[in-house]
Write a structure and sequence with these properties.
Elements (H helix, E strand, L loop, with lengths): L11 H16 L4 H8 L3 E10 L5 E12 L5 E8 L4 H17 L5 E8 L7 H15 L8 E5 L5 H15 L23 H16 L8 E5 L3 H13 L2 E6 L4 E3 L6 H11 L10 E3 L1 H4 L6 E4 L18 E3 L8 H10 L2 E3 L1 H4 L2 H15 L5 H25 L4 H20 L4
Parallel strand pairs: 3-4, 3-5, 6-7, 6-10, 10-11, 11-12
Antiparallel strand pairs: 1-2, 2-4, 7-8, 8-9
Helix pairs in contact: 1-3, 1-14, 3-14, 4-5, 6-7, 6-12, 6-13, 12-13, 13-14
The structure holds nicotinamide-adenine-dinucleotide.
Nicotinamide-adenine-dinucleotide binds next to helix 7.
Amino acid sequence: MSLSVIPELDQPEFRLAVAQFDQAAKAMHLDPNLHERLKSPQRSLSVSLPVRMDDGNVKVFMGYRVQHDSARGPSKGGIRYHQDVNLGEVAALAMWMTWKTALAGLPFGGAKGGITVHAADLSLGELERLTRRYAAEIFPIIGPDKDIPAPDIGTNAQVMAWLMDTYSQQVGYAVPGVVTGKPLSIGGSLGREEATGRGVVDVTLEALKHLKINLADTSVAIQGFGNVGAHTAHIMSQIGAKVVAISDHIGGIYNPKGLDIPEIIRIHKEEGQRIHTMKFGDKVTNEELLTVNCTVLIPAAVAEQITIKNADRLLCRILTEGANGPTTLEADQILEEKGIFTIPDILANSGGVIVSYFEWVQDVQRFFWKDMDIRDRLKDILASAFQRTLSFSQTQKTNMRMAALINGIDRVAQAHLARGLYP
Ligand code: NAD
């Protein structure tokens, strides 16, 4: 079978997403017609974005929004600003969102967006103009009942506020439910900022319980110190786990005795100091961080970090995938043989989209919840998704990734079978 009917999708991330899907579809004997349908995204939009730069010249950027599937509800997924963004990567991330929302039981489909840009090179004004032009170009296909963007790599609450404002200006009234991950002042939710990190911690605690490992004996290494990585590190240190290694895209530090995470976060925020220059531990490269001695390894940066080249050298007991697609298919096989317990991305990092769902519900109802309600409901959904995945993997003698994928895909398949094929 061909990769997809859209040749531009032929990129490493999309190949990985489709290979995982093919493997799961085969294992669950998925209806071949549905298999064929779900391999290609429902809708892919590519837009060129002319932006007036501060020096007066116009520069054109490429932007994308891909809706993989919306059989179960409006599609949902983040927007990434990164120099490597391409249509194939965005489509892969959209496909993972479809399985992720279904696995968590949210009434959403999957989508993703992105702009090929190194955001750090732009001034705040340029970033705002780029975001508003992107919002205007994707306006016809987004909306609280159609497709609801959120932050991802390189985007944050401010970017979501510009998207929400541009959309609202077009329709003539405030529409908070068009994006999630926005500031509290315009309908954001308590707990959304740290939700993905909190979810990463919640599922890791479930795995520690399952493997009968004490939290006090647990050491954690985290690659990536952005929204997901920094919040994960902070919450891990708050609950008493020892965070021994952290990094950003330049490099990181390692200290087997544990790092002072609150102080590192303070210095990082207030003084803008890079992780690898901090004096709290020995310097490590991103590659070395993956193979340090630890109980839990958490990739929380970009895709395809654990590959056939380094999988054999991983020393962790648990791999919690904070990032999307951090492990290649070949590496997965090696990790399984080594007995590393993997919590796959579509389960491990679903805390973000779960609290995004809470934000959307609060916006639509115009009724806002307390912080504790959000934490408790997040924990409940994640614990039940984890236990369902674990028990499926045990009864069906398959790994956690396949169990999670099959669960998600099955829910999407049920929706398609119920709705039928139009016309
Ligand atoms: P972010 O932009 O806030 O942070 C990314 C971090 O990764 C930064 O510290 C950056 O320096 C580092 N990084 C970038 N390239 C790297 C490289 N090649 N090697 C090592 N580190 C590198 O992004 P984020 O929102 O924290 O997202 C991180 C990952 O988590 C992505 O895979 C994203 O898709 C996934 N994710 C994010 C959310 C969310 O709510 N933000 C939800 C689910 C999944």
